[in-house]
Amino acid sequence: MLAIADPDLDNGPRTDRSATMRMCAVSREVRPIGELIRFVVSPQGEVVPDLKRKLPGRGLWLTASRQTVAEAVRRNHFSRGFKREIRAQATLPADTEALLVRSATEALAMAAKAGQVVSGFSKVEGALAQGQAQALIHASDGAADGIRKLDAILRQKHGNIGESQDFPTINVLTSAELDLALGRSNVIHAALLAGPASKTFLSRCQILVRYRMADDDKTESSGQKF
Fold this sequence. Notes:
Layout (H helix, E strand, L loop, with lengths): L20 E3 L6 E3 L3 E6 L5 E4 L9 E4 L2 H9 L2 H6 L9 H22 L3 E3 L1 H9 L3 E6 L5 H15 L10 E2 L4 H8 L6 E5 L2 H18 L13
Helix pairs in contact: 1-3, 3-6, 3-7, 4-5
């Protein structure tokens, strides 16, 4: 399957789908690039995540998992991969997560600007009841009562939450993060409407969930509830 030139960096592994598969420098597993994060060395010599996979220079790929990034820092995989002395900051796992959160909030803001988000309990309730919503968003620190009421409406339309594979429920952002994305205060509930910007937000939420939960093997079992 593999003809490895330099497995840790961008030029390996090479397969018939080399543009979509890479090897994790820690686990040595070949995965789709959607399950990995690319890291590069900045002009200042710092290791930085390249979430959009567009930064110049050679890239080292790691499984999108906080534990994997922490292990790469601890075992100095970056120096081995880039073949020079590089000391990644101990805060890299947390810094990477913060960038993933920012990426998700920016995508949600773009979806809102495109008219693909409604927020507020009554508007979300209406979007669910009318079948307009494509995904349900709850603040991770939202009150249980409101979440329970909207989830009940969702169950009426789509069956038990977690069983439906085409209706995601998202709870990876705090109320403050939703406020920032949507430009209003005290956002607890929102709903995504159909559109390409909404799809971008969902894909960014998926990798954030994977980063936080992959080590617990919860990403697959949680269905579409993230």
